[in-house]
Specification:
Strands 1-2-3 form a three-stranded parallel sheet, with helices on one face. The chain has one domain. The chain starts with a helix and ends with a strand. The chain is globular. It is mainly α. Helices cover 46% and strands 6% of the residues.
């Protein structure tokens, strides 16, 4: 679905995604407290963005090991994604570039622990910030929902960095965030739990420490989420189940039984 987002309007207006995993379909339709909520959030959010582009998505169950074209290839890709070559494949993706830029420790598992420790609403906010798929004008203009990317304050682009650190409209709301980040204020990667890869000019060592040992600062992440809530700019929903119900109007599920 992310690949479709970067395609021109009119390309593939109706898309059917086949899966032989009934558990995955059930999780998307009826989310509970299972791990990986951030993945479900991203599926719904991406589908919602596709709808604004005039594309309808159908999620359909297909029997496994029945000789269906593409099924074997999908399994091979899934296995490759979990082996030692995952890093190389991840780096070559044309989608998710924003996430790669702010978190060079991916595809390590540090964010899985973060997302699974957050509430539904908190997960939704952080996932949008880390993927760049936000209700901010820069993203909405990029996908054709808004004509201009300009912020209401007059800045040419209402980017995530502008919204978090610079927009004068939210000076009061960001005071706690600025105090929490201290000398890392303005560091977008650090604010969103990413390993920046930057090095200290004096020591030549990574400012965030070794990549394999990287652990996001949960206090900072919580402060970011608190700030977003205070601005009401993202208008997050309290219950993830409600968003799932809304998304089911846009994602047709067939062949589940």
């Amino acid at each position: 679905m992310q690949i479709l987002q970067v395609q021109p309007r009119g390309y593939a207006p109706c898309v059917t995604i086949l899966t032989d995993c009934q558990t995955a379909i059930q999780s998307i339709c009826k989310p509970r407290l299972q791990s990986g909520q951030y993945i479900l959030q991203q599926i719904w959010h991406t589908a919602k963005q596709l709808q604004t582009q005039g594309r309808n998505v159908t999620l359909q169950w297909a029997p496994g090991h029945e000789g269906l074209k593409g099924n074997k290839l999908a399994h091979q890709c899934a296995r490759r994604a979990t082996n030692k070559e995952a890093t190389k494949l991840f780096d070559k993706l044309q989608v998710g570039k924003f996430t790669c830029l702010i978190d060079k420790a991916l595809p390590n598992k540090h964010m899985m622990q973060v997302y699974n420790s957050l509430s539904y609403e908190e997960t939704r906010i952080l996932a949008q910030l880390r993927t760049g798929h936000t209700p901010l004008k820069e993203h909405l203009a990029r996908i054709g929902v808004e004509e201009l990317a300009a912020c209401e304050c007059g800045t040419l682009r209402e980017s995530i960095k502008h919204f978090l650190f610079h927009c004068p409209k939210w000076r009061v709301e960001r005071q706690n965030l600025q105090q929490t980040m201290e000398d890392r204020w303005g560091d977008l990667a650090y604010a969103l739990g990413g390993w920046s890869g930057r090095t200290n000019r004096e020591t030549g060592k990574p400012v965030d420490g070794p990549k394999k040992r990287w652990k996001p600062n949960m206090q900072v992440i919580k402060a970011v989420i608190q700030y977003v809530r205070a601005t009401k700019r993202f208008q997050p929903r309290v219950q993830i189940e409600q968003e799932a119900e809304d998304m089911l109007d846009n994602i047709e599920v067939v062949g589940e039984n």
